[in-house]
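We examine the record.
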Amino acid sequence: MSFVDSLLYFFSAYILNFLVWIIIIGVVMSWLINFNVINTHNQFVSTIYRITNAITDPLVRPIRRFVPPIGGIDFSALILLFGIYFLQVVIIPALARAF
């Protein structure tokens, strides 16, 4: 594995881990907002929530087309997390071994 390959592997793992944390933060914030624990009238909360939605909505929207909310619960973020985990554990190491 060359230096460039290991650098790409490191940054892809870093970006995917960052994305996982953004998804988790967005899900927890949506729960807290829906149960009136935090309020979107707070400018800081509103900004963080808009940022997490701007990052995750383009990724979750195609999943929502195929998996609608079941019983009022949206599983699209969970499916996205499983997809990222599969990408980290199976796809990226296989690509690293292939080159």
